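anyone seen this seq b4? input:
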Amino acid sequence: MKPRRRALRWGIALGCLFMAGTGVALWNYFGYGAQARFSEQAIVFDDTQLRLPAALAGATGRIRVVHFWDPACTVCNRETGAHLSYLISMYRRANVDFYAVRRPGTQGELPAHLRGRLTELPTLAGIEHIPASPAVAIWDGSGHLAYAGPYSIGMVCNSANSFVEPILDKLVAGQTVRPRGLLAVGCYCPWHDAR
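predicted toks r here
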């Protein structure tokens, strides 16, 4: 009886180790383990210094959405990329144009599902004031900055916790929205190198 009981205990212990190892492997495979590299932090977004290039500025009658991204921010890019793809599809029949600006000094391409759906811009005036990415700036049809800050609050970016859809809905309906500073808690990548 003792050898059987010992074998059973070893079997249970090995089974538990196998299940724990499988759980960790699946956690990393689906990308959630990479979120541990980013600590949830409070970031103050006050990017009212941003300016569109002269060719895009002014009263064009079109809403302009600019996506700020860093190729090294892979986990956040995946979450925000899916949300951005949804936004592009949702507002495709509205007067909304989508642009992207990559973090200065970096190399990389937009994910395949976003290529050709956003017009890439080399830079924007005031870009040095962006505290973290991913971030977004929205200008109304008259060329006034309506919003500049994060897509959402929290670790996951989606429509349930988004700041963007309510603003776009108001602008599409012809309402006026003015930017305000925003303290957001979430998982963000730094936009500037630490000095």
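The chain has a mean pLDDT of 80. Strands lie at 41-45, 63-69, 96-102, 119-121, 132-133, 135-139, 145-149, 182-186, 189-190. kinda curious what u guys think
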